[in-house]
Amino acid sequence: MPQFDADLLPIVRRFEAAGFRAWPASSVHYDGTWVVRLTAGHPAKRLNSINPLDPGDCDNLTERIARASRRFEAYGRPTTFRMSPLGGAFISAYLDQEGWSRFSESVVMSIDLSAVDLDNVLSQIPMKDMARFISAAMTVHDFEPSIRPGLSEIVSSIEPESGLFLLEDDDRPVASAICVHDGDLAGLFEVATFSGERGKGHGRRVVLSALKWARLRGAKIGWLQVEASNTVALSLYKSLGFRRVYDYHYRQPPK
Q1: For the segment 16-68, what is each residue's pLDDT rounded down to a tens digit?
Q2: What gap in Å lies between CA 113 and CA 55, rounded to an integer?
Q3: pLDDT tens digits for 212-239?
Q4: In the chain, which segments carry CATH 3.40.630.30?
Q5: Which ranges of 55-187 does DSSP label H, i.e. alpha helix?
Q6: CA distance 162 to 104
Q7: Per CATH, the architecture of 111-246 is what?
Q8: CA-CA distance, 22 to 224, in Å (whole number)?
Q9: Does residue 136 contact residue 176 with C-beta atoms inside 8 Å?
């Protein structure tokens, strides 16, 4: 993992807080500065994880992890830490010592919207019909039908202004994205292109349309989260001008 600059911690805190608001869990508990997020209707790790938000908050780890684990067990979820730079070295060392696995390395990226040429980008009006958008997003992502109620609940619970973007070809959904406008930030979530339509520029089009919509509303910084193994998406975002800000990963106890 690249060396992290501690001076960026305030920026990390800002993006982490924006991420919580943009993709809300149905149940949130606090243990000190740990945010324990759980969502019965959706299995996504970021919605079902322990998120330490202060590198110095690392007392009584055994007791606190056991307490959090009981919450995860009640939800039928594996106890999972989401470790951003705010997790700190002490908790990471403890989890290493206890044999916790490390997986799903992800990258948080951002872009200065004033530096992006959006003048010739299609001005797309976000969808107002959430049910139709959810149906289309389910198709684009190839989600299991069981995900639909949870995804609908999450999208309807987003408090900042959000835009639901969909590209269609002959009335078939080919790409989708959710853009959350939060102050001067524009967060991109659930960006995807249908498997049979990749490589045709649909992802680029939907991302640029979403960013143009957000910039017209006053957003100055675009940001997103992407798995480090998703080389196609990383290549797209880098070509648009997104740059890495920090990384995070997940940890789970030995089975």
Answers
A1: 999 999 999 999 999 999 999 999 999 999 999 999 999 999 999 999 999 99
A2: 31
A3: 999 999 999 999 999 999 999 999 999 9
A4: 111-246
A5: 61-75, 88-97, 130-141, 148-157
A6: 26
A7: 3-Layer(aba) Sandwich (3.40)
A8: 11
A9: yes
Non-local (6+) Cβ contacts of 146 within 8 A are none
- Residue 198 contacts residue 86 (beta carbons within 8 Å): no
Q: Which two tokens stand for residue 23?
A: 């993709």
| Cβ–Cβ under 8 Å, residues 68 and 79 | yes
Predicted model pTM: 0.94
Residue 132: both structure tokens together: 């139709």
- Asked whether the beta carbons of 51 and 31 are under 8 A apart, the reply is no
At 37, which amino acid appears? R
Across-strand partners of 31? Answer: 34
**100, 253 contact by CB (below 8 A):** yes
For the chain, how many residues are written? 255
Least Cα distance to 189 among 202, 176, 199 occurs for 176
User: Coil, helix or strand for 187?
Assistant: strand
Q: For residues 116 and 207, is the Cβ–Cβ distance under 8 A?
A: no
Structure token pair of residue 13: 């805190």
Please report the pLDDT score of residue 1 as a whole number: 46
